[in-house]
Specification:
Elements: E1 7-19, E2 22-29, E3 41-48, E4 51-58, E5 66-72, H1 80-85, E6 92-96, E7 111-116, H2 120-132, E8 137-143, H3 152-159, E9 163-167, H4 176-181, E10 188-192, H5 195-208, E11 215-218, E12 231-235, E13 240-244, H6 250-256, E14 274-280, E15 284-285, H7 293-298, E16 301-303, E17 308-309, E18 313-317, H8 322-325
Parallel strand pairs: 7-8, 7-10, 8-9, 10-11, 12-18
Antiparallel strand pairs: 1-2, 1-6, 2-5, 3-4, 12-13, 14-16, 14-18, 15-17
Domain FAD-binding FR-type: 5-105
Transmembrane segments: 111-131
EC number: 1.14.13.82
Length: 326
């Protein structure tokens, strides 16, 4: 289950490179509504190994009638970033009307924005929107090197002292515990970056005693721990077995095989697509932020939309029973 996707014809009209291995692409999109909120994302149709697929990217602020995305060429890519990187001006594809599951609340007295690497994409739009309204805010932005910090120069010009950058190559890192400790009581934090950063932020926020509703995050599907491998999935009580390719998610493979699934976010946040793990012959690579660290360690469930097996076979139970449905 998910909201209905409204597809539009899109033509690439501009390409830029705001950082190392980051390609920013602007598309002219037919019938696009005029505005969308920061944190929104779009789906784009790609072709991977000759097969059609869909990938999701944050939309950046851009002119009316256009959608702009910034994509990092990931070494462990399942094929989406490689496809969009080879697009040239004039090439056509299809994109969806943006939707938003990472919205600013506009209710806080102060906003702490945190970006790790290409996680700057939704944070960038939020920072610009907050600055335009004169909201109290601070943005901390970390990456492996300063050359990998997309939009850092532009953000520095607009935010001034409100931006603090940290480069791992320079031995710099930010102290999330201290950052959270000095926030006003009704402040909110918005974070996007690698899985480890999100997990650390969630644990430290909870430790601080602050309401979890005031910590918002956007998830990357790649945990960075393992390279994608194909694996087999057997669905208990159905007799169905499917192979999940290295370039597809378990959720997509199950849906293509006609397995009934409940799902929504496709980003490991909502937990609707979680399945029970009956038996697994290899390590489960959990890439969600729905389950706690303890739950992921127990490996009794996994989010089908992002998590996967490191090869081998897994027997799952979706909880669906034909006799119950009847």
């Amino acid at each position: 289950m998910r909201s209905k996707l409204e597809w539009r014809k899109a033509r690439l009209i501009d390409v830029a490179y705001p950082a190392e291995d980051v390609r920013a692409m602007t598309f002219a999109v037919d019938g696009l509504r005029s505005t969308f909120d920061p944190g929104s994302h779009t789906n784009i149709k790609v072709t991977i190994k000759g097969e059609p697929a869909i990938r999701t990217y944050t939309v950046l602020p851009s002119a009316a009638g256009t959608l702009k995305i910034a994509v990092k060429l990931h070494p462990n890519s399942r094929g989406g970033s490689a496809f969009v990187w080879q697009l040239q001006p004039g090439d056509e594809t299809e994109m969806t009307e943006p939707e938003n599951r990472f919205e600013l609340s506009w209710r806080a007295s102060h906003y702490l924005l945190i970006a790790g690497g290409i996680g700057i994409t939704p944070i960038y739009g939020m920072a610009k929107a907050l600055a335009a309204r004169g909201q109290s805010m601070r943005l901390i932005y970390g990456a492996k090197s300063r050359g990998q910090m997309a939009f850092a120069g532009e953000l520095s010009d607009s935010l001034g002292a409100g931006l603090q950058t940290y480069s791992q190559d320079d031995g710099e890192s930010f102290d999330l515990e201290q950052e959270f400790a000095v926030l006003p009581a009704n402040a909110e934090a918005y974070i996007c970056g690698p899985h480890g950063l999100l997990e650390a932020a969630r644990n430290l926020w909870q430790k601080s005693g602050r309401p979890m509703s005031r910590l918002r995050f956007e998830v990357f599907g790649d945990s960075g721990r393992f390279i994608e491998q194909p694996f087999d999935v057997e669905v208990a009580h159905t007799g169905r077995s499917v192979t999940v390719r290295a370039d597809q998610t378990m959720l997509d493979a199950l849906l293509e095989a006609g397995v009934d699934m409940i799902y929504d976010c496709r980003r490991g946040e909502c937990g609707l697509c979680a399945v029970s793990i009956v038996d697994a012959s290899a390590v489960v690579d959990h890439r969600d932020v729905f389950f706690s660290a303890e739950e992921r360690h127990e490996a009794q469930k996994m989010c089908a939309c992002v998590s996967r097996l490191c090869g081998g076979r897994v027997l799952i139970d979706t909880g669906y029973r034909e006799e119950a449905a009847a």
